[in-house]
Amino acid sequence: MEKLELIRQNLLPINDALPTLLPQARLRSLSAMNTLGTPRAKYPKLYADNFNATLRAEIADEPIDGWELTGSTSCLHLRNIGSGLKLRFLKKFKFEGSVPPAGTNLRRRQAWVQPAMLDQELSGKKPLSDAEIVLVWTEANGIFHCSAYQPTGTGRFPKGAPCIALMVLQMGEGFKGMAFNGDDDENELLVPRSNTIVREEREETIQ
Protein backbone atom coordinates (compact mmCIF):
# COMPACT_ATOMS: atom_id res chain seq x y z
CA MET A 1 0.00 0.00 0.00
CA GLU A 2 1.27 3.50 -0.83
CA LYS A 3 2.00 5.81 2.07
CA LEU A 4 -0.54 8.41 0.98
CA GLU A 5 -3.28 5.80 0.82
CA LEU A 6 -2.38 4.55 4.31
CA ILE A 7 -2.44 8.10 5.70
CA ARG A 8 -5.79 8.71 4.06
CA GLN A 9 -7.24 5.49 5.46
CA ASN A 10 -5.94 6.43 8.92
CA LEU A 11 -7.63 9.83 8.73
CA LEU A 12 -10.96 8.56 7.42
CA PRO A 13 -12.46 7.87 10.90
CA ILE A 14 -11.43 11.37 11.99
CA ASN A 15 -12.98 12.75 8.81
CA ASP A 16 -16.23 10.99 9.75
CA ALA A 17 -16.22 11.92 13.46
CA LEU A 18 -15.40 15.63 13.40
CA PRO A 19 -18.69 16.89 11.89
CA THR A 20 -20.36 15.77 15.11
CA LEU A 21 -17.56 16.51 17.58
CA LEU A 22 -16.57 19.99 16.37
CA PRO A 23 -19.94 21.75 16.77
CA GLN A 24 -20.47 20.03 20.14
CA ALA A 25 -17.10 21.25 21.38
CA ARG A 26 -17.76 24.73 20.01
CA LEU A 27 -21.08 25.15 21.79
CA ARG A 28 -19.74 23.78 25.07
CA SER A 29 -16.72 26.08 24.90
CA LEU A 30 -18.82 29.16 24.16
CA SER A 31 -21.24 28.26 26.93
CA ALA A 32 -18.41 27.94 29.46
CA MET A 33 -16.87 31.24 28.40
CA ASN A 34 -20.23 32.94 28.59
CA THR A 35 -20.66 31.66 32.15
CA LEU A 36 -17.21 32.97 33.09
CA GLY A 37 -17.89 36.35 31.51
CA THR A 38 -14.98 35.98 29.07
CA PRO A 39 -16.37 36.70 25.59
CA ARG A 40 -14.65 35.00 22.69
CA ALA A 41 -13.99 38.24 20.81
CA LYS A 42 -12.01 39.61 23.75
CA TYR A 43 -10.23 36.36 24.66
CA PRO A 44 -9.46 34.55 21.38
CA LYS A 45 -6.55 32.50 22.77
CA LEU A 46 -8.66 31.36 25.70
CA TYR A 47 -11.33 30.27 23.23
CA ALA A 48 -8.82 28.25 21.18
CA ASP A 49 -7.38 26.57 24.30
CA ASN A 50 -10.85 25.94 25.68
CA PHE A 51 -12.02 24.54 22.35
CA ASN A 52 -9.09 22.10 22.14
CA ALA A 53 -9.63 20.96 25.74
CA THR A 54 -13.35 20.50 25.18
CA LEU A 55 -12.76 18.59 21.94
CA ARG A 56 -10.32 16.34 23.80
CA ALA A 57 -13.03 15.63 26.36
CA GLU A 58 -15.51 14.91 23.53
CA ILE A 59 -13.10 12.40 22.00
CA ALA A 60 -12.50 10.79 25.40
CA ASP A 61 -16.26 10.31 25.73
CA GLU A 62 -16.70 9.22 22.09
CA PRO A 63 -13.42 7.58 20.97
CA ILE A 64 -12.58 7.78 17.28
CA ASP A 65 -12.24 4.35 15.70
CA GLY A 66 -8.59 3.30 15.46
CA TRP A 67 -7.24 6.30 17.42
CA GLU A 68 -6.27 6.88 21.04
CA LEU A 69 -5.57 10.05 23.00
CA THR A 70 -1.97 10.60 24.11
CA GLY A 71 -0.08 13.22 26.08
CA SER A 72 -1.30 15.53 28.78
CA THR A 73 -4.70 17.15 29.00
CA SER A 74 -3.12 20.51 28.14
CA CYS A 75 -2.94 19.48 24.46
CA LEU A 76 -4.83 17.37 21.94
CA HIS A 77 -2.59 14.62 20.56
CA LEU A 78 -3.81 11.37 19.00
CA ARG A 79 -2.06 8.20 17.89
CA ASN A 80 -3.32 5.71 15.34
CA ILE A 81 -3.35 2.32 17.02
CA GLY A 82 -2.62 0.34 13.85
CA SER A 83 -0.02 2.40 11.97
CA GLY A 84 1.49 4.46 14.81
CA LEU A 85 0.79 7.76 13.00
CA LYS A 86 0.73 10.69 15.44
CA LEU A 87 -1.57 13.69 15.06
CA ARG A 88 -1.66 17.11 16.74
CA PHE A 89 -4.83 19.16 16.60
CA LEU A 90 -4.00 22.90 16.47
CA LYS A 91 -5.71 26.16 15.59
CA LYS A 92 -4.50 27.70 12.33
CA PHE A 93 -1.65 30.19 12.79
CA LYS A 94 -3.12 33.67 12.57
CA PHE A 95 -0.11 35.32 10.94
CA GLU A 96 1.82 34.06 7.88
CA GLY A 97 1.33 30.37 7.10
CA SER A 98 -0.99 27.69 8.46
CA VAL A 99 1.07 25.70 10.98
CA PRO A 100 2.30 27.58 14.06
CA PRO A 101 6.08 27.82 14.55
CA ALA A 102 7.56 25.26 16.92
CA GLY A 103 8.60 27.85 19.48
CA THR A 104 10.91 26.78 22.31
CA ASN A 105 9.24 23.48 23.21
CA LEU A 106 11.83 20.75 22.57
CA ARG A 107 9.34 18.00 21.76
CA ARG A 108 7.54 20.20 19.25
CA ARG A 109 10.81 21.34 17.67
CA GLN A 110 11.82 17.71 17.16
CA ALA A 111 8.44 16.88 15.61
CA TRP A 112 8.58 19.93 13.32
CA VAL A 113 11.87 18.85 11.67
CA GLN A 114 11.08 15.19 11.03
CA PRO A 115 12.05 13.74 7.64
CA ALA A 116 9.35 14.13 4.99
CA MET A 117 7.15 11.09 5.53
CA LEU A 118 6.43 10.79 1.84
CA ASP A 119 10.10 9.95 1.25
CA GLN A 120 10.07 7.09 3.76
CA GLU A 121 9.44 3.46 2.91
CA LEU A 122 6.60 1.59 4.59
CA SER A 123 7.95 -1.10 6.89
CA GLY A 124 7.24 -2.86 10.16
CA LYS A 125 4.05 -3.54 12.06
CA LYS A 126 3.48 0.21 12.60
CA PRO A 127 4.84 1.77 9.40
CA LEU A 128 3.99 5.39 10.35
CA SER A 129 5.30 5.28 13.93
CA ASP A 130 7.97 7.89 13.13
CA ALA A 131 5.55 10.24 11.37
CA GLU A 132 3.62 13.10 12.92
CA ILE A 133 1.10 15.38 11.25
CA VAL A 134 -0.72 18.53 12.32
CA LEU A 135 -4.45 18.82 11.78
CA VAL A 136 -5.09 22.55 11.51
CA TRP A 137 -8.55 23.92 12.21
CA THR A 138 -10.06 27.32 11.65
CA GLU A 139 -13.60 28.45 12.39
CA ALA A 140 -15.67 31.56 11.87
CA ASN A 141 -19.40 31.99 12.40
CA GLY A 142 -19.97 28.27 12.85
CA ILE A 143 -18.03 27.24 9.74
CA PHE A 144 -15.04 24.92 10.22
CA HIS A 145 -12.15 24.10 7.89
CA CYS A 146 -9.64 21.31 8.60
CA SER A 147 -6.45 20.44 6.72
CA ALA A 148 -3.60 18.05 7.49
CA TYR A 149 0.04 19.15 7.21
CA GLN A 150 3.50 17.78 7.91
CA PRO A 151 5.87 20.47 9.24
CA THR A 152 9.33 20.41 7.63
CA GLY A 153 10.98 23.16 9.71
CA THR A 154 10.55 24.98 13.00
CA GLY A 155 9.55 28.38 11.59
CA ARG A 156 10.09 31.67 13.36
CA PHE A 157 7.51 34.14 14.59
CA PRO A 158 5.72 35.91 12.93
CA LYS A 159 6.03 33.30 10.16
CA GLY A 160 4.54 29.86 10.55
CA ALA A 161 6.45 26.63 10.06
CA PRO A 162 7.25 25.49 6.52
CA CYS A 163 5.21 22.40 5.77
CA ILE A 164 3.91 19.93 3.24
CA ALA A 165 0.15 20.20 2.76
CA LEU A 166 -1.13 16.64 2.91
CA MET A 167 -4.88 16.83 2.46
CA VAL A 168 -8.12 18.61 3.19
CA LEU A 169 -10.70 16.75 5.22
CA GLN A 170 -14.09 17.08 3.54
CA MET A 171 -16.13 15.94 6.48
CA GLY A 172 -18.70 13.24 5.98
CA GLU A 173 -17.78 12.59 2.34
CA GLY A 174 -15.48 9.61 2.85
CA PHE A 175 -12.51 9.02 0.56
CA LYS A 176 -13.85 11.20 -2.25
CA GLY A 177 -13.70 14.30 -0.08
CA MET A 178 -10.09 13.96 1.04
CA ALA A 179 -8.38 16.11 -1.56
CA PHE A 180 -4.97 15.41 -3.13
CA ASN A 181 -2.77 17.23 -5.63
CA GLY A 182 0.80 16.08 -6.28
CA ASP A 183 2.02 18.34 -9.08
CA ASP A 184 3.51 21.32 -7.22
CA ASP A 185 7.06 22.38 -8.09
CA GLU A 186 7.89 23.70 -4.62
CA ASN A 187 7.54 20.38 -2.80
CA GLU A 188 4.04 21.30 -1.62
CA LEU A 189 3.09 17.82 -2.61
CA LEU A 190 -0.56 17.81 -1.72
CA VAL A 191 -2.44 21.08 -1.85
CA PRO A 192 -5.67 21.63 0.12
CA ARG A 193 -8.88 22.96 -1.34
CA SER A 194 -11.25 25.16 0.61
CA ASN A 195 -14.04 23.23 2.29
CA THR A 196 -16.98 23.85 4.58
CA ILE A 197 -17.79 21.07 7.02
CA VAL A 198 -20.55 22.39 9.22
CA ARG A 199 -22.80 25.41 9.50
CA GLU A 200 -25.20 26.16 12.31
CA GLU A 201 -28.80 26.03 11.07
CA ARG A 202 -30.22 28.36 13.71
CA GLU A 203 -29.08 31.57 15.28
CA GLU A 204 -27.15 31.09 18.49
CA THR A 205 -27.93 32.93 21.68
CA ILE A 206 -24.42 32.44 23.08
CA GLN A 207 -22.04 35.26 22.23
Your description of this structure?
- By secondary structure, the protein is of the alpha+beta class.
- 29% of the residues lie in helices and 18% in strands.
- The protein has a six-stranded mixed sheet with strand order 1-2-3-4-5-6.
- α1 (3-36) crosses α2 (44-61).
- Residues 180-207 have low confidence and may be disordered.
Main beta sheet strand tally, sense and closure: 6 strands, mixed
How large is the share of residues in beta strands?
15-25%
Overall 3D form: globular
Instruction: Specify the number of helices.
Output: 3
The strand order across the widest sheet is 1-2-3-4-5-6
Name the descriptors.
207 residues; alpha+beta; 6-stranded mixed beta sheet; 29% helix; disordered C terminus
Topology overview:
Elements: H1 3-36, H2 44-61, E1 67-70, E2 77-80, E3 86-91, H3 106-112, E4 132-140, E5 143-151, E6 163-168
Helix pairs in contact: 1-2
State the gist of this model.
This protein has 207 residues and is of the alpha+beta class. Helices cover 29% and strands 18% of the residues.
